[in-house]
Amino acid sequence: MEVLYKSTRNSDKTVTASQAILKGLAEDGGLFVPTQIPKLSVSMGELKEMSYQETAYAVMREFLTDFTEDELRNCINRAYDSKFDTEEIAPLVKVDDTYYLELFHGATIAFKDMALSILPHLLTTSAKKNDVKNEIVILTATSGDTGKAAMAGFADVEGTKIIVFFPKNGVSKVQEMQMVTQKGKNVDVVAIHGNFDNAQNGVKAMFENKELAKELADKGYQFSSANSINIGRLVPQVVYYVYAYAKLLQNEEIKDGEEINVVVPTGNFGNILAAYYAKHMGVPIRKLVCASNENKVLYDFFRTGTYDKKHREFMLTTSPSMDILISSNLERLIYQIAGCDDKKNAELMALLKSEGVYEITDEMKAGLDDFVGGYASEEQTKEMIHEVYEKTGYVMDTHTAVAAHVCKNYKETSKDETKCVVASTASPYKFVKSVMTAIDDKYASQDEFELLEELREVSQTELPNAIKEILNANILHTLECDVDKMEETVKGILGI
Question: pLDDT tens digits, residue range 267-311?
């Protein structure tokens, strides 16, 4: 069965998977969604015996139907290789009565590696399939993790350039160092004087700018995206939820068909949307628990049906990858619960842009039954790291701790005894200062890089290669710009 893709703002026109991956964002500013979410064609009994790579093929072939078997397997095998520091790619660790799906064993020690290791291969394969001669410019905004993972994936990939914008002083020291030390002749990194939402809005505006697209084309360039707005980012993320269920089955932690709950620390809504797609593919997921930090725009949305970024302050927290007030991927869910009504979705997105707020109908609210919202304050996040460490010796990062707190709170208030899988989205080494201070306040005055060795001893884990690399690396990128100079900066980098 061929799966085609259409825009959330115009359902009339369809494109193939490879065309959707190449474009990143639809011309009307909408996001590409599959015409239908395909079902898994293999049983959980078969999946439980599969490696991560085999599971990836079983899931992705259902979505990327214009890729040949050879093309897809080649992309998968080149992505999920020795750059991951564990053989199983995404280990499932049982801590007390909760399962942590560790998604941070890739080259940049964050879950973005899971999709951004494969996106360059999907993109260059898509370019060949569609006879694209232009150089592809990957334009990306990052709240800390996407940028580094994208740069690592695209560094020196022929036929591509990558430009990443990140909020100056809005990411951790380790995250910043990972980005500004990134090697690659085709890589540029820019610190903007603003927050992540400013960066994301600036990037989206460039994607929607027809005049800029023509200027680029005249110089032999075209934009594409490595953000989770690209369907080529989202589809690989579906894989690890399928894999997690199959591993629970293989480990005899659950019976075939038994439902699980999935708890995801959420900012841009891509990671939890992938779990929603996995559920609709046939994975027995009961509830999708959406965990927010103090930027709890999603928590309030699931509670009230009103998405309101206008009447709230943007908070800088110790879980910066979730410091987001415009959750781009929510648009894909809004489109789905609106009965795939592109006009209704476009109307709501226009309201968000002009008024900073929109409200969904009661009928649409009924479509949110799969979801539960929760949030953790800064203090609760800190307490969760401390509590789990004291009780079990397991050390988690701040984003995972937000989800762990929300998971615990959900279990206590709902009395739901369904087994829970928490998406563990980053290594504690990435947020070492916040993690070590949570474990013991005596570390609060120490330098972030001095604490790496302390964390190694406390957690009894190896220092990841990603950390070793930045300790002695040279700073290669010092470019900064104001929010209103992003387009000008891109043109300067490309020589336009």
Answer: 999 999 999 999 999 999 999 999 999 999 999 999 999 999 999
From 426, 425, 473, 430, select the one nearest 451 (Cα to Cα): 430
Q: How many CB atoms lie within 10 A of CB 307?
A: 24
234 phi and psi angles, rounded to 5 deg:
-70, -45
Residue 460, pLDDT above cutoff 90: yes
* Residue 491 bears catalytic tag: no
Q: Cα dihedral sign for 19, 20, 21, 25?
A: positive
| Residue 143, pLDDT score | 85
**Which position among 112, 161, 247, 287 bears the catalytic label?**
112
Structure tokens at 304: 């009230």
Amino acid in the structure at residue 315 = M
Angle, alpha carbons 132-138-141 (nearest 5°): 155
Q: What is the mean pLDDT of residues 16-35?
A: 95
> Phi/psi zone of residue 131: left (φ > 0), alpha (ψ -120 to 50 degrees), beta?
left
Does the pLDDT at position 372 exceed 90?
A: yes
Q: Which of 421, 16, 434, 433 is nearest to 244 (CA)?
A: 421
Q: What is the pLDDT of residues 298-346, one digit of tens each?
A: 999 999 999 999 999 999 999 988 999 999 999 999 999 999 999 999 9
pTM of the model: 0.92
Closest CA to 83 of 50, 113, 112: 113
* Per-residue pLDDT tens digits for 122-175: 999 999 999 999 999 999 999 888 889 999 999 999 999 999 999 999 998 899
**How far does Cα 168 stand from its chain's mean position?**
20
Long-range contacts of the stretch 157-161 (C-beta < 8 A, 24+) = 157/120, 157/124, 157/186, 158/124, 159/124, 159/127, 159/135, 160/120, 160/123, 160/124, 160/135, 160/136, 160/186, 161/135, 161/136, 161/137, 161/186, 161/187, 161/188, 161/221, 161/493, 161/494
Per-residue pLDDT, 438: 98
